[in-house]
Amino acid sequence: MMSKAEPLALIHPAGVAPASSYAHVCRAGDFVFVAGQISKDADGNWVGLGDAGAQARQVYVNVGRCLASVGATPRDVVKINTILVDRADRDAVTAARLAFFGDHRPPHTGIIIAGLGSPEVRVEVEVVAYLPQARG
Prior knowledge:
The protein is an alpha+beta fold. The chain has a single domain (8-130), classed as CATH 3.30.1330.40. It has two helices and six strands, in the order E-E-E-H-E-H-E-E. The protein has helices at 52-68, 90-101, and strands at 8-11, 25-28, 31-37, 77-84, 108-112, 123-130. The protein has a six-stranded mixed β-sheet, covered by helices on one side. Strand 2 (25-28) and strand 3 form a beta hairpin. It is globular and about 40 Å long. The mean pLDDT is 94.
């Protein structure tokens, strides 16, 4: 955890495959920024190759671990960005998002692009959470 004197903290959460060139989480004051999560498990193995729904479920496992690393929960999320490479995956990915957030429905933006950082990736999700320092 960071103290009130620290302007930001870069966090590498346990249980999320390490990124080689960035931190998965940044706590900046009362806000938590979670980098785009993909479907790798804690050991760096792909989950759900060719299956966007299975990938999305792993993505949300990773998002949950990132949030938990600073004491946040899905209910603290104030913005979601979902990036897909195929419009046909929308329903499966949406189902995973709704299962993760339950009845919490923060603003969401869905984007469809030609490709992501690796050809295995069908979905990537980033979130922003609000976590007052008095709580976290």
